[in-house]
Amino acid sequence: MTQKLAGKVAIITGASTGIGAATAITLAEEGAYVAIAARRADKLNEVAQKIEASGGKVLQVITDVTDEAQVQNLIAKTKETFGRIDILVNNAGIAIAGQIANANTDDWRKMINVNIFGVLYATHAVLPILLEQKSGHIVNVSSVAGRTVRAGIGLYNLTKWGVNAFSESLRLEVTPQNIRVTVVEPGMVNTEIDQHISDPVAYEKSQALRKSITPLEAEDVANAIAYAVSQPERVDINEILIRPTTQY
Ligand code: NDP
């Protein structure tokens, strides 16, 4: 590895599995000190062990991103441990597919709390630090579903379109102060994400779609994030849309 991120400190939410875990490992390989956050301690520990085995430096902070106080603790602990924060990857997210009619509205609240409030709380808590440093980079993991819409994933569409709109508005606010904002929009990725779908019809539909293409691997998205955050400070990659080749 090129160690392009030597001396940088990165926080990755939802780093216990999937895209977040791969991103933490990739950024650590590039030399960043990483703070990894999620709810499952055992999974987080597995990721931390991989990073440490390759000589990386990692801080584990058990965090539920829907709880503002826990998110504030994540940001404070990272600053206290590593002295600064350069990169925040707002990656934690869930996707519960299903029709709008007769939906379980608890699923809506869960998705809005993780996909929207998780991003807002972490951004709000980290911004004063980045503004004081006069440098920093926020990467928000959105989705192709934040640019397009499909029947049967209306609430997920709502959250990811929200993330895209918020990211662009945030970018316009902070870009004069040398803070970079990137939104990353993956297509279908081979991760655990479908496990939250309780509606059997929606689950089967999602699985069928997955089997009809060759999905991305989590590492493909991690590499895109690493590309964005490794650019010289004058370069702000605003948006990365990354689809499996056979997904339209
Ligand atoms: P995974 O299910 O593998 O990972 C989701 C991560 O989010 C886990 O680490 C999970 O950790 C964490 N998470 C969920 N809820 C919370 C919470 N309340 N607090 C803290 N962490 C939480 O899925 P992916 O890697 O696929 O998803 C990562 C991101 O990528 C999401 O934002 C998703 O919307 C987006 N995405 C995924 C696509 C795909 O096809 N897989 C396509 C496009 C975008 P834990 O359960 O331990 O808390």
TrEMBL record:
Organism: Pseudanabaena yagii GIHE-NHR1
Alphabetized InterPro entries for the sequence: KR_dom (IPR057326), NAD(P)-bd_dom_sf (IPR036291), SDR_fam (IPR002347)
Gene3D superfamilies on file: NAD(P)-binding Rossmann-like Domain
Assigned keywords, A-Z: Oxidoreductase
Entry's family note: Belongs to the short-chain dehydrogenases/reductases (SDR) family.
Record-linked Pfam families: adh_short (PF00106)
Ranges where the Ketoreductase domain occurs: 8-188
UniProt entry tagged with the keyword Oxidoreductase: yes
Name of the protein in question: SDR family NAD(P)-dependent oxidoreductase
